[in-house]
Design a protein that fits this description.
Bound molecules: pyridoxal-5'-phosphate
Low-confidence stretches: none
Number of domains: 2
Order of helices and strands: HEHHEHEHEHEHEHHEEHHHEEHEEEHH
Strand content: 5-15%
Helix content: 40-55%
Distance between the termini: 20 Å
Number of strands: 13
Structural class: alpha/beta
CATH architecture of the largest domain: 3-Layer(aba) Sandwich
Radius of gyration: 21 Å
Strand order of the largest sheet: 2-8-7-6-5-3-4
CATH topology of the largest domain: Aspartate Aminotransferase, domain 2
CATH superfamily of the largest domain: Type I PLP-dependent aspartate aminotransferase-like (Major domain)
Shape: globular
Mean pLDDT: 93
Length: 382
């Protein structure tokens, strides 16, 4: 399986699984949700001129980038911490807080559960339901809160870790839910790794509140929107007191100087951001309607660059079989059956540029009209 290490975008595993028949061909990657435009042009400019900078240590306090992020989000600089990808900050938060319990709304990004378990927290899951299009409802939140109180857990002992937009479902958490939890004295981390893709980010996101409101932490990733996953860059907004505690726990120089410089450069490119958002709005809608025309069920919101898709019932095709058949054709998809709460009907697709999407749809059209066993045999012989 492509998700051997828990995530999409694993080209080394893809080469092992599908590469023998595919030769040196590049994969078209629908399994990781990257901006398909590639990094902003400024990144390549920077790489050409980077040279001497590797001979000095990176700024341990990441001042240049934090300063730019502070202006970008209109929050004080001391409410921001930069990390080696959002993944580092998820882990850091759990390590620092060591909560007794972690409330997760599943299916969600697997690292929340990993970090909770690694740090000794009991996972208190809220099950998101397909019938509710995987929305987190105020009723489910209140029920969980009552359950926590019954088991003697008070605010401060529990960390609510919510994805917004949630991966893989694409749903945004209602800001009113976050507020209600904070008013109850709960600590809430909102992972907004994909929020930059939303056209109305300032209405949907809660990052600005995190700078002033104790108990609220917002995590952002720069790797998806700016297509720099190999560089590793993410940041967190929270009350300065918490930021100070987390910074003290962080490995020194965890954000290398190239990542810092790239972070600063990409924030300057407002045109790249505008163009991405405008393109995504159209392409996502088109891809969803084409997938629906193939008889697939799709989930998500208008704000994300991926589509959770499902076979309408448990028939002969499964997500694993589809992943394999497409893999041998050079197309990688995410088998979403590995997310807690989903089964073998579900797979996740990134939204890519039109020529790739047409190719994907053509392959899907052909495969779904055949028997999966026959499709696997044929693919392996190609
Ligand atoms: C919801 C979510 N949060 C965080 C991350 C980690 O992002 P980064 O590449 O910045 O570590 C991912 C990566 O897939 C993700 O899907």
């Amino acid at each position: 399986m492509l998700e051997r290490y828990g995530h999409g975008g694993d080209w080394a595993t893809a080469r092992e699984l599908f590469g023998a028949n595919g030769g040196p061909r590049q994969f078209i990657d629908y399994s990781a949700n990257m901006n398909p435009f590639g990094p902003p042009a400024g990144v390549f400019e920077l790489l050409r001129n980077y040279g001497d900078a590797i001979m000095i240590y990176p700024d341990p306090a990441v001042r240049g980038l934090r300063n730019k992020l502070a202006r970008h989000h209109d929050v004080p600089m001391d409410s921001l911490l930069v990390g080696n990808g959002a993944a580092e900050l998820i882990d850091l938060l759990f390590r620092s807080m060591r909560p007794k319990a972690a409330v997760l709304a599943e299916p969600c990004f697997s690292e929340y559960r990993e970090a909770a378990v690694k740090n000794g927290a009991n996972v208190e899951a809220i099950e998101l339901r397909a019938e509710e299009r995987f929305r987190l409802t105020p009723e489910a939140v209140r029920e969980k809160l009552a359950q926590l109180r019954r088991s003697g857990l008070r605010g401060g002992q529990t960390l609510w870790f919510l994805g917004s937009p949630n991966n893989p479902t694409g749903q945004v958490v209602d800001a009113a839910i976050v507020k209600e939890l904070l008013d109850e004295g709960e600590t809430v981390a909102v992972d907004e790794a994909f929020m930059d893709f939303a056209a109305n980010e300032s209405e949907l996101g809660v990052l600005r509140d995190a700078a002033s409101r104790e108990g609220l932490i917002v995590i952002r990733s720069m790797t998806k929107f700016y297509a720099i996953p190999g560089i590793r860059l993410g940041y967190m907004a929270a009350h300065p007191a918490l930021i100070g505690r987390l910074a003290a726990l962080q490995v020194p120089w965890s954000v290398n100087s190239l990542a810092q410089q790239i972070g600063e450069a990409v924030l300057e490119d407002t045109r790249y951001a505008r163009d991405t958002i405008a393109w995504l709005r159209e392409e996502r809608q088109w891809l969803r309607s084409e997938l629906a025309a193939l008889g697939l069920v799709t989930y998500g919101s208008a704000s994300v660059n991926y589509v959770l898709s499902a076979f309408p019932d448990k028939r002969s095709w499964t997500s694993a079989r589809l992943q394999e058949a497409l893999g041998f054709k050079g197309i990688l998809i995410r088998d979403a059956a590995h997310f807690v709460g989903l089964d073998e009907r579900y797979f996740r697709l990134a939204v890519r540029l039109r020529p790739d999407n047409e190719l994907l749809l053509e392959q899907l059209r052909q495969l779904l009209s055949t028997n999966p066993q026959a499709a696997s045999r044929e693919a392996e012989c190609e």
